[in-house]
Design brief:
alpha/beta; Immunoglobulin-like; TIM Barrel; eight-stranded parallel sheet; seven-stranded antiparallel sheet; 36 strands; about 20% helix; globular
């Protein structure tokens, strides 16, 4: 009935009931004494400290078994990131007095507690260390390790060493730190062309501008761009089929555009962002993440044309500087999008269409006598069509050769401390940091042509320019074990766009849903909580508290579309997606779910991220429909007010930014957790005022929650709900009783 664990503090006995249920389940069918084995990696009695471990530290592990057990040991593998390194650590029996603190077991009678310490020598290098337990009773050995779900937490019994699912410990560099301003922030992602048009004089011009599209023969060619004179119109989608004679013919024609991708513009620019800084500040935002702003022919700018120039449709270098200065005057930071796995084929560096005055890499490929300084930037594939490696099969995006010293120097290697704002003597990373950016979001950062070594060198270069610069990698997988690679060693990125968090949120707050990229499966509150605890256990604390916890991005469907109950995108045509509208009942439910989900997001560990317009009620399936224009003058003002309140709550309560996390309740559709600061230190060991917050969500009909407060608050403790006008609650009989509205949330703070 109850699942509790702590991130940075002891969970004590609050999870006794549910853990007993777990134990009973894994005891079924187990022979005699072996069924008495028990450990829980989320409970500090059994594993201390909780979660990832810095290099040079020690981890104490405990195992409960029957009193008759004669020996126990810890089996380690992948020691110090060496796949062939294994070792065994003997455990010793503790005095029976320790049983009084052992949680999760139905009875302490006839039990024993065993303890072993993983020494610092086995935690000397960053990587993922694996472990399991051996238990012996008079010559018979049993194995205890991670449960079959692989979540961590309460383990499972294995009859032999084959097929054991190991527990894991992420080991990260002891020196790993992340920028304080990022950890204590709220991020707002902006797709500049669609946010606001502040200067019509720099609007894109279809009479003079060309972009890559399809020619009359269907081959790659330069075609005129398209421009929407109506700010509120729908982005063009070439997948919409135009059928003459169809009753929807005119609408299909209007939605289809000229059949070319990413060539339609709305005129949004950097001046528009400057004009809206007051609005963004009202949301509590302190960090703006801008999708690419460098010169490019497309509306999305991920096909970079020139890394050292602002796209003229967005403004000038002066406009960018004005934005940086205006933002910093409001205490805001700018994170830029770094697209280093490829460039555009129509770029200064590749110059496939001859639009630039440079001798591009393409010119040298076609005529080797023409020497290009950029030829080594790319990966070539002679004899193939095209004769170069393209990113993800898109021939307009030639993939860069990240092993080339020339590309490394261009992206991050050059830094002229005497003249840091000179684009000729500084790398891309260094130049824009010197021009006022506060960090980089790294596009496709886990792409196969990148390596830990590459991003380690990038990190070193960036931190040399600005030790407080943020580095956020795009990785849709578990970044501590992404196909065997650990990106969060403390030597590469500070954090990631936390797509696993988004997936879990959709699975809990929506249920089964397929957006064409990810199949989400419905989760109960218990499974949802386990998924989050796995994340907290695996991600290093400095990274976890700086994770970009998003509900949507430029690459996903709008979160409100999903929560409103839209059909799976895979079952709709492009026209149906472009014209789908929720019923009033669906819209009301979707907004309620978005509010409760966002309250959960703002209370959880990490940095809340808003995809522009989500706070205004924007909807849309995936690209290009998720990249509509911000509905100025037509926004859901009530929803905006809710986001403004959440921003005020988050920024006004440091405990939500850096407090420890303890899950208190997970039952059916309701989950509650505590964020706490104790002893004058926050979860990262920084000085902070003691505080307690309780966040609860109810993703179902109205109900009353009875939440155990053992180890969190004492009887008589008074809490106020900042989401609902300071409504008061009192802890009684060791519990906090809350009447929850259907699809509602509370954010309570102890006085």
């Amino acid at each position: 009935m109850l699942q509790t664990a702590a991130y940075g503090q002891s969970s004590q006995h609050a999870a006794q009931t549910m853990r007993s249920e777990h134990l009973s389940a894994h005891r079924a069918g187990a022979p005699d004494w072996q069924s008495e084995l028990y450990a829980n990696s989320w409970d500090s009695f059994y594993r201390s400290p909780f979660g990832a471990a810095p290099t040079g530290s020690q981890v104490v592990l405990r195992l409960v078994g029957p009193a008759a057990m004669t020996a126990a040991a810890i089996d380690l593998s992948n020691v110090n990131a060496n796949a062939n390194a294994t070792t065994t650590i003997a455990m010793h029996r503790l005095p029976t007095s320790y049983l009084k603190d052992a949680s999760g077991i139905p009875t302490m009678a006839g039990r024993s507690v065993w303890e072993g310490t993983i020494p610092a020598v086995d935690l000397a290098k960053p990587g993922v260390l694996n472990y399991s337990f051996e238990a012996t009773d008079h010559g018979v050995t049993a194995y205890y390790a991670n449960n079959g779900d692989g979540y961590g937490g309460v383990g499972g019994l294995y009859p032999n060493a084959f097929g054991v699912v190991n527990y894991s410990i992420t080991v990260y560099a002891r020196t790993f730190t992340t920028p304080a301003w990022l950890r204590h922030g709220i991020i707002y992602e902006i797709f500049p062309d669609r946010f606001d048009n502040g200067n019509k004089a720099n609007d894109e011009n279809p009479k003079t501008q060309l972009a890559i599209g399809a020619g009359p023969d269907g081959q790659e060619a330069l075609v005129p761009i398209q421009f929407h004179n109506n700010w509120y119109s729908t982005p063009y989608d070439p997948n919409v089929t135009v059928t003459p004679g169809s009753p929807d013919y005119k609408e299909e024609l209007a939605l289809h555009g000229n059949g070319n991708w990413n060539t339609d513009f709305f005129g949004g620019d950097l001046r528009g962002i400057i004009d809206r800084l007051g609005y963004l500040q009202s949301l509590g935002v302190n960090t703006l993440y801008l999708t690419p702003i460098f010169q490019s022919e497309s509306n999305h700018k991920y096909d970079t044309g020139n890394f050292m120039e602002i796209d003229p449709g967005f403004g000038t270098l002066k406009t960018y500087v004005d934005l940086v200065r205006a933002a910093k005057a409001r205490g805001m930071h700018i994170i830029l999008d770094g697209v280093f796995e490829d460039t555009g084929s129509d770029s200064l560096y590749f110059n496939k269409f001859g639009n630039y005055k440079s001798v591009g890499a393409w010119q040298e490929n076609q005529n080797p006598s023409l020497k290009s300084p950029y030829y080594s930037f790319y990966e070539w594939s002679p004899g193939n069509t095209p004769p170069y490696v393209d990113w993800s099969g898109v021939d307009t995006l030639p993939q860069t050769n990240t092993s080339a010293k020339s590309w490394q120097q261009f992206v991050y290697g050059k830094y002229d401390a005497k003249d840091p704002t000179n684009p000729a003597t500084n790398s891309v990373a260094a130049y824009w940091l010197s021009m006022g950016a506060s960090g980089w979001r790294l596009d496709s950062a886990n792409n196969s042509n990148f390596s830990v070594a590459w991003w380690t060198a990038f990190r070193s270069a960036v931190k040399k320019v600005d030790p407080q610069a943020a580095i956020i990698g795009e990785d849709w997988n578990n970044p501590t074990n992404d196909n065997g690679v650990d990106w969060l060693t403390g030597t590469t990125w500070d954090s990631t766009m936390n797509y696993p968090f988004r997936d879990a949120m959709i699975s809990f707050f929506r249920g089964n849903y397929n957006d064409g990229n990810v199949q989400n499966y419905a989760m109960t509150a218990s499974t949802f909580g386990d998924t989050l605890m796995q994340m907290l256990e695996q991600y290093p604390q400095p990274a976890m508290y700086a994770m970009m916890n998003l509900l949507g991005s430029q690459d996903t469907e709008r979160i409100l579309t999903i929560l409103e109950g839209a059909p799976d995108a895979t079952g709709l045509t492009a026209f149906q997606q472009a014209t789908w509208k929720p019923t009033p009942a669906q819209q009301a439910l979707g907004v309620a779910k978005l509010e409760e989900a966002t309250a959960f997001q703002y209370g959880f560990v990490g940095v809340p991220d808003i995809y522009y317009g989500d706070e205004a009620g924007m909807i849309g399936f995936s690209d290009p429909l998720n990249r509509g224009t911000y509905p100025w003058g037509r926004a859901n003002e009530k929803l905006i007010a809710y986001f403004q309140l959440l921003g005020k709550i988050r920024n006004g309560h440091p405990v939500l930014q850096s407090g420890n996390y303890t899950q208190l309740f997970a039952q059916r559709d309701a989950l509650a957790y505590a964020r706490t600061i104790r002893g004058g230190k926050d979860a990262l060991g920084h000085p902070a005022k003691d505080a307690t917050a309780i966040v609860a969500v109810n993703n179902g009909p109205a109900r009353t929650l009875v939440i155990p407060m053992a180890g969190v608050l004492k009887n008589g403790a008074l809490l106020e709900d900042s989401l609902h006008g300071g409504r008061r609650y009192v802890v009684k009989n060791g519990n906090l009783t809350i009447s929850m509205a259907g699809y509602g949330a509370v954010m309570l703070f102890a006085e």
